[in-house]
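From the pipeline queue, job 12 of 40. The input is one protein chain; the requested action is below.

Action: predict structure.
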Amino acid sequence: MSLTVHIQKKLPNYYLDVAFGVDDEPLGLLGSSGSGKSLTLRCIAGIDTPDSGTIILNDRVLYESRRGVNVPSRDRRVGVVFQNYALFPHLTVGQNIAYGLKHCGKIERRYRVAQQLVQMQLSGLGDRYPHQLSGGQQQRVALARALAPEPDLLLLDEPFSALDAHLRSTLETQLSQTLADYRGLTLFVSHNLEEAYRLCPQLLVLCDGKMLAQGDKQGIFDAPGSVTVAQLTGCKNYSRLEVLATDKIRALDWNCILETEELVSPLQTHVGIRAHHIAFLDSLEGSNRFPAWLAGSSETPHRQTLYLKLGDPAENSQDYHLRAEVFKEKWDRLKSRPFPWSVGLSPSRLLLLEGGNPL
C-alpha cells in the first residue's frame, strides 16, 4: 500500500507546497498552527481542492490537475477523524458509525457497527445521541465511523486536542492498539511533539506550507538541521555561534566556547542543545564543562525546569543562558549542592543548525 502526494495551493497567508510519500508506517505531520497540516489532510480527503499537483493512493489517481481528475471524497476510500468530532447530532451512535456503510447490505452494515462498538469500548451506547456522550466517547465514535468502511487511508487531524490530559492518554493508548491492527495507511496531524513521536515512526515537519524535514523520527530529533525544525521538535536552548575552528565555536548568547563533535559548516548560524541533554557533573575537569548558577526553576508533576546562568551568578530570575530539565528525583539530589554547579554540554549532544533566529 502506498500514498504519493505532490500538491500546491495558494492561500492568503502562505503557499502550500508539499511532496511526500507514505507506506506501511504511520506518518506524523508536525508543525505549529497555520503551517498547512490540516489543509494537506483536507486536500487528500477531497474536502479541499489543490490548485495543482497529484494525489495517488494504491495506484489510484485521486487527484491530478493536469488531466482534470478529482475523485469525489465519498469515493476515495479515505477515513477522516477531526479534532471537533464532527458527529451528526441528529443520528444515534450506531447511525453515525453506519453513515459510510451505505454500500453494504443490511446484515453486513449491522455486523460492522457491532464490531466497532466492541472495539471502541462503546458497547451498549449504540442508541444514544452524541450530546449524551462524554468527549472521549464522542471521539471514539468518530474513530469508529472512520474505520467502519475499512478505508485504505486513515487521516487523523489532531484527534485529541479537545480532550483533557487523562482522556488524551487513554485514547492515545487505544488508538495505538487500533493502528497496530489497521491494515491501511495512516497520517496523523499534531502540533504536540511527544504525541506524534509516540504514535508515528515517521515524521514530516511543516512550517508556513513548506516541508522542512521528513524521515525517521529519531533521525529528525537527533539532527534537525535547522533552527525552525529544532524548535518544532521541542528544543528550547539556542545561541548564535561564531566559528573558531572546524570543531570549535563560540556560543555568543551563552558566553562560552564549545568543542563540537560534528565539523562546523559556514551555513550553520546557531548551536542548540535539548533541555534534558544538559548534564550535571561532579567536577569542571573536561571539555565543555562550565560553572553554573541557578536563576530560577519551575515544576511539572514529574520534572523540574532549571534556568541556568554560566560563568557568573544570576542577577535576577530572567538572567539565564540555558533551560535544563531533570526528573524530580534528580532535583532532590541536586538542589542541596553548593554553587557553582558543574554543567556539561557534551559535544555529541550539540545541535549545529542552519537558519535565522528562532521563531
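Job complete. Residues 165-181 form the longest helix (17 residues).
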